[in-house]
Design brief:
The structure holds two protein chains of two kinds.
Chain A (H helix, E strand, L loop, with lengths): L5 H6 L10 H8 L2 E6 L5 H4 L16 E5 L5 E5 L8 H13 L6 E5 L16 H28 L6 E4 L2 E4 L2 E7 H5 L3 E5 L24 H6 L14 E5 L8 E6 L1 H4 L5 E5 L2 E6 L2 H8 L3 E5 L10 H8 L4 E6 L2 H7 L2 E9 L11 E7 L2 E6 L4 H12 L6 E4 L14 H13 L3 E4 L2 H6 L7 E9 L5 E9 L14 E7 L22 H19 L3 H8 L3 H14 L10 E10 L2 E11 L5 E11 L6 H20 L5 E2 L2 E2 L17 E6 L18 H13 L5 E2 L3 H7 L2
Parallel strand pairs in A: 1-8, 3-4, 9-19, 15-29, 17-18, 21-22, 25-28
Antiparallel strand pairs in A: 1-2, 2-3, 5-6, 6-7, 9-12, 10-13, 11-12, 14-22, 15-20, 16-17, 16-19, 20-21, 23-24, 24-25, 26-27
Helix pairs in contact in A: 4-5, 12-13, 15-19, 18-19
Chain B lengths: L1 E8 L2 E8 L4 H8 L18 E4 L2 E4 L12 E3 L12 H8 L9 H14 L5 H8 L9 H15 L6
Parallel strand pairs in B: 1-5
Antiparallel strand pairs in B: 1-2, 3-4, 3-5
Helix pairs in contact in B: 2-5, 3-5
The chains are: A alpha+beta, B alpha+beta.
């Protein structure tokens, strides 16, 4: 696969449409000023064409904002709020460029009838790719308002200034007019053509300032609405029969006991067997009375044999990047290090399980869903029901965590089918067991690296092959003359026949696997050369941004050279994801039983201009905390298609007691364009902990998660 | 068995005729449409469904509704008084102690119950007493800070 082909993997099956024609649209939005912007027109997006986004973005507009007659500003975006905080940062960008107070902005997110088409909320793309056209739209709106104000106030444009939703005469402050006054009775629709005049970074008053979450009030009072909180008259709650294993075929089913329960409806439609009731718990009790027999396929792999299986079925890989000559590199090296790194399947385990509510009324289908891909869900529902896509509207309320798992919309299709079969609005909310069972796990993966150094500690050889994780983050960034990076296995979805169940994108997909392998290997070479891991990295790096984050992290952490292994140790890991550079340092304590407590983590991050530094820090802290899970405990146990971890009793995610002291450093890079923030800081968590464990007790861990058993086995 | 259960819900008398074996979570969410209390795991492992019964934090997904008879139940909807947020709620906002917000009602009610029992908890005591509430977004550090701030605001009285 070519660089950034990961985007294709997610979007190859989508057909893009915009639901409304221009006239309908204007009718719907009434008066005010509306600015439409096409991503194709936005210069920032043109630069992204190289990412080969598919499908082609629609020719019609993709983003817009409206200034209503009351002066309130609505931002319509196909992105959704999953906790990552774009409800705040997008509003900041808009408010700053438009010169309105932040609290006058209303975010309308992900509604497929109201918002422009969007491929989905993932890949840390919202700020990078949606931010620039949104700013352009806001700048255009400001220009339109300025022209209206010039006429209204009878003052030439160059004497006018906009601030807080008011335009005034710079020479005579009292001569002013509000945006609301200017929009009153107007119906102006403008399409952004060419480049709007954007504010300079130095002129920002809202962007770059730490702003508290704008959704906090709703979320601390219980008023925030998630999909499962919507109530419709006559709605039914469905519980769906789940097979005991992936690949199991149903032989017989007996629903008679469930059918005898008052008010229970049973639906049998091919593979879909469901019980429905006006209360979700009653539906659950009825489901327990359904008896089914299955044919189970022979289990060919389990969580121990999976890695050999993957290596056996791996297709020929393709070089992602290469340079120099590997044979020359090997000849020039005094020490060769060859290692194999493994990581297990990992679950998304968002706190909100996949949920959907579907109502069919006449030819109109309305869907409320916890989804990262509302526009894909719309097409999937249309296909499942055999109706035109424009008759389906998907509305995503707040989403209770996604991490890539809610790019998959299986529950939406289930609810749609059941709504059609019962003639009632139907909610499907997966149980925790279903959430684990149907999850598209982060794939189990293998990385093999052969690398070589001279006695000086200079790396001369890097031969890297990643199996089944995907190529994101596989490209190394050290100064190595002879190198090759190969990716095989078909990305995180996996080539057919490779995984016994579904896999998919998991927060910073592929990069967690790749960074764990690369940064562990770097440490092993440093140790071979007898050089401190910090010094070793400094010696082999030329990339200025990487050197910047590494030095900043070392300074904050107070890095000192390793002492004898005494149970406490320090580790380093570096990485790049979504255009953002991260350097982590950690201190761990390892006891005799192999239990690890991470005491402290420092992360220095260069993300270009940080729109909301407080939001960025929140994401870094979240990444570090969540990342401790895949580093230390998270692993799906299975045999064939049977999943053994179905709740948080055996699948251990990070808890309060795990909490290290977390310190973040945001590099001041205001003049560089903003980059991704929701994922980068998680990629280093495997290696930074592994390297610190090695420093603490001399155990080199080559497999994630680093459980006490594996640590004990690796002790020297 | 259907029975009539009288209890106090968010400071108001409540009379509910339901099968008493049903779990409180579902009575709240589907009989009373109080949807601030969340379903997270259904087996008492995550704490998203935490509510207070006689000021004790309980897992409402594991708590039969018959057991609230004559007792006082507080859900996230009942924590603010006359439009004034509770100090714990205010502290969560101040520290941005949430991301997706799905675990937040349970976190806040559990934190409140911790402070009722121990008005000035140490850092370690906060960790210990919040241990069974899970946040997948990883807001733990900020939640701990929020609880410390709330403890100061409540000045040891633990009064609502």
């Amino acid at each position: 696969m070519k660089k950034d082909d990961y985007m294709d993997l997610d979007f190859s099956d989508i057909e893009a449409h915009f639901p409304l024609d221009r006239r309908e649209f204007i009718k719907l939005f009434g008066g005010g000023i509306v600015i439409l912007v096409s991503l194709k027109d936005a210069e920032a997006l043109l630069q992204q064409q190289r990412t080969r986004v598919r499908p082609e973005l629609p020719e019609d507009f993709n983003a817009f904002l409206r200034i209503g007659e009351d002066g309130r500003v609505s931002c319509f975006t196909g992105k959704v709020e999953l906790g990552q905080g774009v409800i705040t940062s997008l509003a900041q960008m808009l408010a700053d460029e438009l010169e309105v107070p932040l609290d006058s902005v209303d975010m309308v997110m992900g509604d497929t009838d109201l918002c422009p088409w969007d491929m989905g909320t993932f890949g840390s793309m919202t700020t990078r790719f949606f931010g620039p056209p949104l700013r352009e739209a806001a700048a255009k709106a400001r220009a339109v308002l300025m022209e209206l104000a010039a006429e209204y106030l009878q003052v030439p444009l160059n004497k006018l200034q906009a601030k807080d939703g008011v335009i005034f005469d710079k020479t005579q402050n009292k001569n002013k007019v509000t945006y609301a006054q200017l929009t009153k009775g107007k119906k102006i629709v403008k399409k952004l053509v060419g480049k709007a005049s954007l504010k300079a970074v130095s002129e920002f008053t809202i962007v770059g300032k730490p702003i508290s979450r704008t959704d906090a009030q709703e979320k601390v009072t219980g008023k925030a609405i998630f999909t499962g909180d919507i109530r419709l008259p006559g709605m039914l709650y469905a519980r769906i029969l789940r097979a005991p294993a992936h690949g199991a075929k149903i032989k017989s089913v007996d629903t008679s006991a469930a059918e005898k329960i008052k008010d229970v409806r049973v639906v049998k439609d091919g593979d879909l067997i469901a019980v429905l009731h006006k209360h979700p718990d009653e539906a659950g009790k009825a489901l327990a009375k359904v008896k089914a027999q299955y044919d189970l396929p022979e289990a060919k792999v389990d969580d121990k044999t999976i890695f050999d299986h993957l290596l056996n079925v791996a297709p020929e890989g393709e070089a992602v990047v290469q340079g120099g000559n590997l044979q020359t590199g090997e000849k020039l090296s005094a020490h060769i290090v060859e290692e194999t790194y493994l990581n297990s399947y990992v679950a998304h385990a968002a706190t909100e399980t996949h949920t959907a509510l579907v109502k069919i009324e006449g030819d109109k289908t309305t869907v409320w869903a916890s989804t990262q891909t509302p526009f894909r869900a719309k097409d999937e529902v249309a296909q499942a029901l055999g109706v035109p896509s424009q008759n389906v509207r998907v509305i995503p309320p707040f989403v209770g965590g996604g991490f890539g798992g809610k790019s998959s919309n299986k529950q939406v299709v289930q609810a749609a089918r059941l709504a059609k079969l019962t003639g009632k609005p139907v909610q499907v909310a997966w149980s925790r067991a279903e959430e684990f069972f149907h999850d598209t796990f982060r794939p189990a993966a293998v990385v093999k690296i052969k690398s070589g150094i001279k006695d000086s500690g200079k790396i001369f050889l890097w031969d890297y092959i990643v199996y089944f994780a995907g190529e994101r983050g596989s490209q190394q960034f050290y100064d190595i003359p002879h190198h090759r990076t190969v990716s095989t296995g078909g990305g995180w979805r996996g080539a057919p026949g490779s995984h016994p169940f579904g896999t998919g994108a998991w927060r910073a997909p592929a990069n967690n696997t790749n960074t764990f392998a690369r940064e562990s290997q770097i440490d092993i070479m440093a140790s071979k050369a007898g050089i401190d891991p910090l010094e070793f990295r400094l010696k082999n790096l030329k990339d200025k941004r990487m050197l910047g984050v590494l030095t900043a992290a070392a300074e904050k952490f107070g890095w000192t050279k390793s002492k004898a292994a005494n149970g406490r140790g320090y580790g380093i890991s570096l990485g790049i994801d979504s255009g953002t550079y991260v350097a982590h340092m950690a201190e761990v304590e390892v006891d005799k039983k192999g239990a690890v407590q991470v005491k402290r983590v420092v992360c220095a991050q260069d993300m270009g201009l940080s729109i909301n530094p407080e939001g960025a820090k929140m994401q870094i802290e979240g990444c570090i905390t969540m990342g401790l899970g895949y580093a230390l405990t998270e692993e799906i146990h299975f045999k064939g298609g049977e999943i053994f971890d179905l709740n948080f009793d055996t699948y251990e995610i990070p808890r309060f007691s795990w909490l290290p002291k977390i310190e973040t450093v945001l590099i001041d890079a205001k003049d560089s364009p903003p980059q991704g923030g929701g994922e980068p800081a998680i990629i280093c968590m495997g290696a930074v902990v592994a390297n610190a464990i090695y420093d603490a007790v001399g155990a080199r861990l080559l497999q994630l998660p680093m459980t006490p058993e594996r640590i004990r086995a690796a002790l020297p | 068995m259907r029975e009539t259960i009288n209890f106090k819900l968010n400071d108001k008398p409540m009379r509910l005729t339901v099968d008493g074996e049903r779990m409180l979570l579902w009575a709240l969410r589907s009989e009373l449409s109080l949807t601030g209390t969340k379903f997270g795991c259904g087996e008492g492992f995550c704490g998203a469904c935490t509510v207070l019964v006689n000021k004790e934090a309980v897992r409402s997904c594991q708590f039969p509704v018959k057991d609230v008879k004559g007792k006082e139940v507080i859900t996230i909807e009942g924590l603010a008084k006359n439009g004034n947020l509770h100090p714990v709620q205010k502290a969560f906002i101040k520290h941005d102690a949430l991301q997706c917000g799905f675990c937040t009602p349970g976190m806040i009610l559990n934190a409140y119950s911790v402070l009722l029992k121990n008005p000035q908890p140490t850092h370690k005591e906060i960790l210990q007493n919040m241990e069974e509430n899970l946040c997948r977004c990883g807001s733990y550090a900020r939640i701990v800070e929020a609880i410390k701030t709330a403890a100061k605001e409540m000045k040891g009285g633990g009064k609502r």
